[in-house]
Recover the amino acids of this structure.
DNA sequence: CGACATTATGACACCGGTGTCAGGGTTGGA
DNA sequence: TCCAACCCTGACACCGGTGTCATAATGTCG
């Protein structure tokens, strides 16, 4: 037998029509049990597999989801944010559990990214994942909605469509971190991250953090903030610049673990002890966090649940079901960097 | 316009036949330049995208590769080996660079994994990635070859088909590690990992390591070996058991970084100082390695190059070109755990 | 025994492109 | 003027399935 077997080949050998083969293989109740058995046997013998292209073409759906992973173009190319890798893992698993395949694609945040996986019928829906400047995205989101493209995104909120977003309760997470530092009476706190509308997730973390301090009658000093994107390098440099400017603090909240790790490096280098001189709290609970020196206290995001919710919500959207906004509860992981 | 536009819609609005639309969009030289321009305009207006299912069905190829990631079933489910995640990243990028999409799928090593992505025409070829018990795989490999399925795999060697494998020079890497420890005169060395034919990569690392010692007239003590799979937990327990058995050593070579990190934890717990009492060397250079305490000396595998070679070689196989066996050179990264 | 429901199957159009072939129109050389 | 060459286009079969419709065979009941 040259080439791959088709349903016609099976039909020939099983002595039935091709239609019957198709029905038999999909367990249609219309087919006689004996016939079905015969068809299955022949199919197995010929190592037959349904041609997904033909099947998808006819049914107009692909049983495939696409994952677009946005990378901060300013970040080091070779390293991918471990938090998103963890998400990728859980999304992959969630897809498999639902019988869907997953197409993975990396996108640069700057370039005008293409979301044509759905237009071209390669995927039934799209998952958008990544930090990045979501201000620019709203226009893109609108056009996706207009074209009736099914998608969900992590973190970034889509104007007027809370149902398209799954995210961690970043605000609540920020409060958790603040409450923890306040319990240890570390009131003189620095913040490293981007607390602007360009990074809605970081912004929410900062807001929660600030509000918790405010509720304790403490106003954060704006001079003790430094901008950073979510890389170790960036966190390192931001913290260095604070130190270089003689800014003092006895605790530090980083908008992400990578930033926190870079901050710890800068602190150590300057002879500042963690946690004795400065308590450090990060966000994400990436795998590395427990191996740093000292181990990093951090606000955990449940990536397993997050992946599941993204996939579940997307499938609901595809099926036309109603979806609620999904906010996942964060939890505080206390380690050596703050005790 | 309800539903998505097809080439017939474009043909209608552009006043040409559907055949011409198809040709025009694929930049066939047969089409008049003016006609082409008109077609492109209409296509853009209708936000037309070629239906991949139809296209793939007709051309019998998918411009898609599938990545099967094997996980050690005994490992913690929620954590994925960071080394493979790094590989996943570089493979994704390499695919994109070649204009291919990537389907990602996790497989359990134990279950009889399905490689039907190619049979079902969802992918043109398959990349196999993962540690694991490759002895069981040889039969599967044979059947893949027999069915003329295009695939390459990382690490594991396929009987008589070196061209289907891309791997790091694990043997050479082991020698690098050994030479490094010998330079510091740390001759009393323990090995943590699985040095059996079940883990060909670990086995090769151990062989190179042992041979280098032998060439210096030193025979490794088999009692100072402990089995471990590539997880932190496993490395921790293996090392603990060595310590519990009162086995002494002044250096330790771990078959992977995760094992090394677990080993360091066990050593610290037992009051053994790294690197003063024991020099530790790992393998992989995962991202975590530079953040451990002390930072981990390790043998680096070039994941970027590895991903590229896997994709390049697979595409060559698909195109029917000849492929050479690909061995990537490792390099030693010296950090605090061994100086 | 005839009317009718039930079961199992085959024939066929269809999904949306791609590739082949035939043919119309124009140009150029003899 | 006629034929060949060239350029461009349309008609149509085809990829390998799925879904609908028609129909043959069998069973059921009055």
């Amino acid at each position: 037998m040259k080439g791959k077997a088709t349903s016609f080949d099976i039909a020939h050998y099983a002595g039935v029509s091709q239609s019957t083969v198709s029905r038999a293989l999909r367990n249609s109740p219309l087919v006689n049990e004996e016939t079905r058995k015969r068809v299955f046997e022949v199919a197995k013998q010929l190592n037959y597999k349904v041609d997904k292209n033909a099947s998808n073409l006819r049914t107009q759906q692909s049983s495939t989801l696409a994952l677009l992973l946005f990378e901060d173009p300013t970040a080091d190319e070779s390293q991918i944010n471990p938090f998103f890798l963890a998400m990728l893992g859980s999304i992959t698993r969630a897809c498999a559990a639902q019988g869907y395949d997953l197409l993975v694609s990396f996108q640069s945040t700057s370039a005008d990214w293409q979301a044509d996986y759905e237009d071209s019928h390669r995927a039934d829906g799209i998952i958008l994942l990544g930090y990045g400047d979501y201000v620019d995205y709203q226009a893109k989101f609108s056009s996706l909605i207009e074209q009736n493209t099914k998608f969900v995104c992590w973190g970034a909120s889509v104007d007027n469509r809370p149902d398209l977003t799954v995210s961690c309760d970043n605000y609540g997470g920020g409060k958790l971190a603040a409450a923890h530092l306040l319990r240890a009476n570390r009131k003189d706190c620095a913040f490293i991250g981007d607390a602007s509308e360009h990074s809605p997730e970081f912004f929410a973390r900062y807001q929660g953090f600030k509000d918790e301090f405010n509720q304790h009658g403490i106003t954060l000093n704006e001079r003790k903030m430094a901008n950073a994107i979510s890389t170790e390098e960036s966190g390192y440099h931001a913290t260095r610049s604070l130190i270089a400017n003689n800014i003092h603090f006895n605790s530090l909240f980083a908008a992400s673990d990578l930033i926190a790790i870079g901050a710890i490096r800068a602190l150590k280098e300057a002879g500042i002890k963690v946690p004795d001189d400065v308590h450090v709290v990060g966000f994400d609970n990436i795998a590395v966090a427990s191996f740093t020196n000292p181990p990093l206290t951090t606000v955990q995001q449940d990536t397993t649940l997050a992946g599941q919710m993204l996939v579940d919500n997307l499938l609901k959207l595809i099926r036309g079901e109603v979806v609620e906004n999904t906010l996942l509860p964060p939890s505080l992981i206390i380690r050596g960097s703050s005790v």
Remarks:
- The interface with chain B takes residues 4, 47, 49-54, 56-57, 62, 64, 69, 78-80, 82, 85-86, 88-90, 92-93, 96, 101-106, 116, 119-122, 147, 261, 287-288, 291-293, 304 of chain A (CB under 8 Å).
- Chain A has a mean pLDDT of 90.
- The first strand of chain A starts at residue 64 and ends at 71.
- Residues 285 and 300 of chain A are 5 Å apart (CA to CA).
